[in-house]
Design a protein that fits this description.
Layout: H1 2-37, E1 45-52, H2 61-71, E2 76-78, E3 92-94, E4 114-119, H3 122-135, H4 137-146, E5 161-164, E6 167-170, E7 173-180
Parallel strand pairs: 3-7
Antiparallel strand pairs: 1-4, 1-7, 2-4, 5-6, 6-7
Length: 182
């Protein structure tokens, strides 16, 4: 009987310790994920917005765009704001823009845009805007890989077209200039 009670007590202590360790590890993991996801980046200035058409979007496109921007020395962040900022003017003015880093180990929703910036002036944003076709070259290669075998009449020109107001189209992307002014 003493052995049974001792085994039962040992099992209880072991299970309690394992459960406590699991909760602590989960808490650390959640804290780390929250720290990664919530990067304060709501600064005034000009931004370049990147959205992808639904038919062209692929899993991980935001990560690829942020990576390509980073290699060009430009900060890229994701926004959970999925509204379009098209304007007939050269840029659209917003009061706020909530941005965060790309989710680690998770896929973003296809429609979430990426923002590059902030840039101190419209001129600085325009200079990067003009380089977008060369910056996104590796992303266009990935778009081609994703579309292999599809019969479509997709415009394969890797240059801006259909530019109106603050938006230009390029290779399945809608690229827009946005200004955040508090």
């Amino acid at each position: 009987m003493k052995r049974y009670a001792h085994c039962l007590m040992t099992s209880f202590v072991f299970i309690t310790a394992a459960f406590s360790y699991s909760l602590a590890a989960q808490s650390r993991s959640t804290t780390t994920q929250a720290r990664i996801k919530k990067i304060p980046a709501n600064y005034s200035g000009f931004y370049i917005s990147f959205e992808m058409c639904h038919a062209c979007a692929y899993i991980g496109w935001q990560r690829d765009v942020v990576s390509a921007l980073g290699k060009a020395g430009v900060k890229g962040l994701v926004s959970d704001d999925v509204s379009s900022h098209y304007a007939p003017q050269s840029y659209w003015t917003l009061k706020t823009l909530q941005l965060r880093g790309v989710k680690k180990g998770e896929d973003e929703d296809w429609q979430l845009p990426v923002y590059a910036g902030p840039f101190d002036s419209k001129h600085a944003a325009d200079q990067v805007f003009l380089q977008v076709p060369s910056i996104l070259h590796p992303v266009f290669d990935e778009v081609d890989k994703q579309r292999v075998g599809l019969n479509d009449n997709y415009n394969r020109a890797r240059k801006f077209h259909d530019c109106t107001g603050n938006q230009c189209d390029i290779y399945g992307f809608f690229v827009q200039l946005v200004r955040v002014q508090r």
